[in-house]
# Entry
Amino acid sequence: MQLPEENLVHVQCADCDMRLMEFIKIRESNKEHKFKVLCPGEKCEGSWEVEIIGDCVYNTPEGLVIENMNLNEETGVMTIEVNKNE
Ligand SMILES: [Zn+2]
# Structure
């Protein structure tokens, strides 16, 4: 099944241009997801937020792994730490 391109959300660090995560919306729903992705770059302290409404799955680009995920119950923001897969 081919998903429409707008269902794919790339999170890219605006400081070092590294691609950090990709989210794919697989179904319309009224679930609200807030993600905050931290860049593993040594000189980067960037964190990039995305909001997705609907059911979604996520994936890391090649060479990166998810190191930690932490949901803030108060804000509903899921913070994701990624790291280089070495
Ligand atoms: Zn960065």
